[in-house]
Amino acid sequence: MVTCVFFHAHPDDEALLTAGTMARLSSEGHRVVLVVATAGEAGLVADGGNPGVLRRAELRSSAALLGCDRLVELGYPDSGLSGSPTGFSAHDPHEVARRLADVLHEEEARMLTSYDPNGGYGHPDHRQVHRVATLAAKLARTPILLEATVDRTWYARGLKAARVAGVKVPPDTGQVYSSSSEITHRVDVRPWLAEKRASMAAHASQASSRGGDTRTLAVLLRLPRPLFRLALGTEWYVRREMLAGSRMTHPLAELC
Ligand SMILES: [Zn+2]
Question: With contact defined as beta carbons under 8 Å apart, do 101 and 136 qualify?
């Protein structure tokens, strides 16, 4: 049994990108630690409460539903899509990496998750997660570093299907997430979709759509069960580099 640390930018990123993998590893007896950089307070909250407080409470529910053994909140300000000059993305990545490396040391983590260099769709906080995780894994000599991503081909197909169904979706620029050829791990999480769905639903403030604002979580949670299974039954990772001596069997090797 090993410890796996999942590093995310905002509450709800864990639900969308790695929830199935987390539930799976936890159910198999591995120690699962969730580290989140910000409280996601720049995300819209429908009913006008304090976004940071609400989203942190949602994050705690999600972590419990996924069987997390520990939740670490780094407490940086959410940069928002336009990248606030005082936000997480503007902090010195080396400084943040030292804090993350402390957690990795403490936990004797075997595996850390990050994002692809573009942070999926380019959110400044997601790109910062990539920079920080890459540095922290080196500092702590964490053997396995996996970038949580989405298969770009699959994503484009999903957008097209959604558009045909009349859902307002962002234009497909073809530059998001990772190409099929880059992906090294395709994790089948279909047996853990109940946990994944519950984790997504726990982020209730992000799961309602108002007016013209269509949110990914809201759209996905409204999918009929077979489509939900198709859309969310796989989680993708890219393993780019290996530290010396990191070829040992690790949980995800058995899953793929
Ligand atoms: Zn995010």
Answer: yes
